[in-house]
Fold this sequence. Notes:
This protein is of the alpha/beta class. Helix content is 34%, strand content 25%. It is built from 8 helices and 10 strands. A hairpin with a 2-residue loop joins strand 9 and strand 10 (212-217). The chain is globular and about 50 Å long. The mean pLDDT is 91. Residues 17, 20, 22, 40, 42-48, 85 line the site of adenosine-5'-triphosphate (ATP). Adenosine-5'-triphosphate binds at residues 17, 20, 22, 40, 42-48, 85. This is ABC transporter ATP-binding protein. It holds the Pfam family ABC_tran.
Amino acid sequence: MPNADSVLTVAKVGKKFGSKTVLEDITLEVQPGETFGLLGPSGSGKTTLVKLLSGIDQATSGQVHVFGKLMPQLSLMKQIGYMAQSDALYTELSALENLQFFAAIYGLKGTKRRQRITEVMDIVGLSEHLHKRVAQYSGGMKRRLSLAISLLHEPPLLILDEPTVGIDPLLRQSIWTELKSLNSRGTTIVMTTHVMDEAEKCNRLGMIRDGRLLAVDTPEALIQSASKNSLEEAFIYYGGGQS
Ligand SMILES: Nc1ncnc2c1ncn2[C@@H]1O[C@H](COP(=O)(O)OP(=O)(O)OP(=O)(O)O)[C@@H](O)[C@H]1O
């Protein structure tokens, strides 16, 4: 049974693609209001894991529960904001039309819809580009629009796959300010990242290598238990040869 206090409970989860094992024996809990980071080398399984957490894909073995419900679960869609690594946007439409489309899926209507669209575009610094076609957006702008869409319906759980890749440092800082503010108001955040200063902002981190969760702890405790001086060194220790 999932822990009633947890937002997310992952129990002995495995994932195979054909005969290839990509995740093995992952057990993890995320508590309400946490910012939880998944850190690991390229190809270690982070994206695969967050897809299982958001219900986009299904585990081969074990169970994922979100808000006490077994995933995947369509009824939880309104409670999860998911930002994928590759942008799922309609490039022939304007940003506004994209936002209106996703708002409709989440059941946002009328004034509330207009208000949320204004708010999320402000958060990601794209207010001036609301009417531009997404085909004319840069890569970073598309990432920001994807983030805005994941925030539209004010979900209590945000699952973000490398949310700030391709976003300049200044805007990244303002997005983090917003994420921390959402977090302080109770939003639980799970994200994958390669960026060390972002990982340090997480309350806890899970270190993944070759589809296995090697360690889960606060950034400080991970640095200490690897007997290193920085998170970067600890990451190399957990992600590489452990020497
Ligand atoms: N649909 C799929 N079919 C077969 N193999 C897959 C599939 N999706 C992912 N994989 C494999 O699973 C492994 C883990 O991939 P995943 O994208 O989860 O890693 P990641 O840690 O997110 O990497 P990155 O940091 O580069 O995004 C890789 O070896 C990848 O090739």
